[in-house]
Design brief:
The N and C termini lie far apart (about 55 Å). This protein is of the alpha+beta class. It has 6 helices and 4 strands; from the N terminus they run ααβββααβαα. Helix 2 packs across helix 5. The chain binds zinc ion. The site of zinc ion has 8 residues, from helix 3.
């Protein structure tokens, strides 16, 4: 964290960063949608209101900000300079909560993938990852398409 912000400004920034519909999540949603995948967003009935839920495939995508969710990368290793103890405890709790949620989802038969903010990469690499995790985008719709013809 650079120290060019006042503590109040920094809190506001952190709140904004934590919010839904962050840019990395938008990128993932846009690519997934273009590829033909259909999903539900922020399903509150599931642990952690997962960002993207693919009910037919029983798969879930979380798009995590590296700082907030404690990714093992440069951005995730940054430490807040003010109220250090408070933030570190909070970030530790975030990480523990993420692990609990993933375990709960896996226990109910959901396959979970986390896409980290720093791993978004290009549209092509993102698309390849989505295809690998989700499988062929058109498969679940084949029956529907045949009926329409
Ligand atoms: Zn990262």
């Amino acid at each position: 964290m650079t120290d060019t912000q006042t503590p109040a400004q920094r809190s506001a920034t952190m709140r904004a960063v934590r919010g839904k519909n962050t840019r990395p999540e938008w990128a993932v949603r846009k690519v997934a949608h273009r590829m033909g995948y259909r999903y539900r967003l922020h399903v509150r009935a599931l642990p952690g209101s997962p960002d993207l839920v693919f009910p037919i495939r029983r798969k879930i995508l979380f798009v995590h900000g590296c700082f907030w969710h404690g990714h093992d990368c440069r951005r995730g290793a940054r430490e807040p300079k003010s109220n250090r103890g408070y933030w570190l405890a909070k970030l530790r709790r975030n990480k523990a909560r993420d692990a609990d949620r993933c375990a709960a989802l896996a226990a109910s038969g959901w396959e979970v993938m986390i896409i980290w903010e720093c791993e978004i990469g290009t549209v092509e690499t993102l698309a390849a990852r989505l295809r690998q995790f989700l499988g062929d985008a058109r498969k679940p719709h084949i029956a529907l398409e045949l009926k329409e013809q």
